[in-house]
Amino acid sequence: MKCPKCNSDLVPTVRHKIPVNACPSCKGMWFERQDLNQLEDEAFDFGDDAKGTIVFSSTPTSAKCPECSGPLKRFQYRLFELEMEFCEQQHGYWLEDDEDTRVLELMKKEEKDFERKVLAENKWTTTLKQMRSHSFLNKVRDLFH
Fold this sequence. Notes:
Blueprint (H helix, E strand, L loop, with lengths): L10 E5 L2 E5 L6 E4 H11 L4 H4 L6 E7 L6 E6 L6 E5 L4 E4 L3 H34 L1 H10 L2
Antiparallel strand pairs: 1-2, 2-3, 3-7, 4-5, 5-6, 6-7
Helix pairs in contact: 1-3
């Protein structure tokens, strides 16, 4: 496979425990679709549904997919301030030097925010149940008598 940026041969390597093909020249990396999912799962345990949509919109680039030579498209990863490219035929994603580390950082933050949201929702549910209980309603009625 050839690098979509500088046309160098991609070499197998391991990044964050995941085998990928990397460019020794520009340091970019080709993540197959399941590899990017595995990378995200290293930092985010709540399942794919909780991660949200990965690509909302994209623009064509002149770079070619290392697998099928089709055009890659640029997109904002999960609407974060991180741009990467993908193959429309779902072969994979092109990440620039160290963007895989950035994906991990973003997923860690998302997991923390998600945990906080779930905790807040659980507390709110408990509060609503208490407010709907007979004892609470009786106390409110007693205030007006």
